[in-house]
Amino acid sequence: MHVAIAGNIGAGKTTLTQALAKHYKWEPHFESVEGNPYLDDFYNEMERWSFNLQVYFLNSRFRQILEIRDSGRDIIQDRTIYEDANIFAPNLHAMGLMANRDFKNYASLFELMERLVTPPDLLIYLRASVPTLVGQIHKRGRDYENSISIDYLSRLNERYEAWVSQYTKGKLLIVNVDHLDFVENPEDLGNIINRIDAEINGLF
């Protein structure tokens, strides 16, 4: 079983990954954030470091997918390789923050990797409005995220919605987190778990 959680910056992916891993006894695989050598530089100078950052994420995520495939375990994954290629990299390119030649190089690399990628059995998309994202980002207080603009988050949200509306690689569960608190409210987490159970039961 491979379940993946998708969503914008601050949507609650890592928190929900931890909660579901504990509940289902799944092995969690987290996004490589703390050890990422490009994040600080990227948020300070996006145009200079966008390609480096996206290639780092692509490499990290591809390696993670191969480990998931070879592990034979039940896995829950924080963010997918598809989000890098369909949302973050194209958004940087559209904003003029990634050069044409770099974007073409990146897209070619992803296209090659995708041939070896098995989609998750279930994709959970955390839908969140920009005010919710901003609130969550401020709450966790990562220094390098202080410079993220409302415009950047809005653009990402638009791309997430477009991507999810056309997602056909497997089962999809959309969770609107604007009025949920699955950290403090066990009932909210329970409702998400019930919906996941229904999707998982339909997989077999």
Q: Tags for this entry?
A:
single chain, 204 residues, alpha/beta, Rossmann fold, 5-stranded parallel sheet, 8 helices, 57% helix
What can you see in these coordinates?
With 204 residues, the protein is α/β, with parallel strands linked by helices. It has one domain (2-201): 3-Layer(aba) Sandwich (Rossmann fold), CATH 3.40.50.300. It has helices spanning 13-24, 39-44, 46-71, 81-94, 100-114, 130-140, 150-165, 186-201; strands at 2-7, 27-29, 75-78, 122-127, 171-176. It has a 5-stranded parallel sheet, with helices on both faces. The protein is globular, with a radius of gyration of 17 Å. The termini are close together. The mean pLDDT is 91.
What is the CATH superfamily classification?
P-loop containing nucleotide triphosphate hydrolases
Number of beta-strand segments = 5
What number of domains?
1
List segments where confidence is low: pLDDT < 50 over at least 5 consecutive residues.
none
Strand order of the largest sheet: 2-3-1-4-5
| N- and C-termini, Cα separation | 11 Å
* SSE pattern: EHEHHEHHEHHEH
The share of residues in helices is 55-70%
Q: How would you characterize the largest beta sheet?
A: 5 strands, parallel
- Please state the second-level CATH architecture: 3-Layer(aba) Sandwich
**SS-based structural class?**
alpha/beta
Determine the mean pLDDT. Answer: 91
Q: Using the coordinates above, name the CATH class.
A: Alpha Beta
* Rg from alpha-carbon coordinates: 17 Å
Q: Helical stretch count?
A: 8
Find the CATH topology: Rossmann fold
User: How much strand?
Assistant: 5-15%
